[in-house]
Amino acid sequence: MKLDKLPKTTKKKKKKVGRGYGSGKGGHTVGRGAKGLKARGKVKLTFEGTKTKKSFLKKLPLQRGKGKFKSLKPKPLVVNVKYLNLFKKGEKVNLKSLVEKRIITADEAKKQGVKILGDGDLQIALKIELPTSKAAAKKIEKAGGKVVQPKKKTKVVKKKPAKKRKPAKRPKKKGKT
């Protein structure tokens, strides 16, 4: 076999930093230069050479003007009492029944929720299982219906037992001798 017919290697091995002079990246500063923060340890990803108040916070978008304190959560869909006349006497009114009657769409109802407001008149006695305004509740009860407030889901939070603290060691008083 001739030497010029041997396969050629195209990849070079990565230099291992700080493994002595023979590695090509060894010795005193190991390719990090002399002194400074970058020579000593890891630099935080968010570090920009100045205080965070001046650099990071200034880049954040601020909502300006009227309504900047308003919540970004979607408001519930409004269904007025006058639209509930489509139901039959004694029927239950909930999200499922409103979707079936095509008063609201299922997607919007799940995302935003529904609230019944008191615009218009109601002639039918219904059992309502949705959040309502005070005016709507009066009109529903006046028509002979019933408002059942939905139960709010409460999260049970388990408290961790308090850690027992050891009394602090007091330094011994040095007396005058």
In brief, what are we looking at here?
The chain is of the alpha/beta class. It contains five helices and five strands; from the N terminus they run ααββααββαβ.
Tell me about this structure.
With 177 residues, the chain is of the alpha/beta class. The chain has a domain at 77-147: Ribosomal Protein L15, Chain: K, domain 2, CATH 3.100.10. It contains five helices and five strands. The chain has helices at 37-40, 56-59, 95-100, 106-112, 134-142, and strands at 77-80, 92-93, 114-117, 127-128, 146-147. The strands form two sheets. The chain has a three-stranded parallel sheet. The chain has a two-stranded parallel sheet with strand order 1-3. Strand 4, helix 5 and strand 5 form a beta-alpha-beta unit. The longest helix has 9 residues, at 134-142. It is elongated and about 95 Å long.
Structural descriptors:
177 residues, alpha/beta, single chain, three-stranded parallel sheet, Ribosomal Protein L15, Chain: K, domain 2, two-stranded parallel ribbon
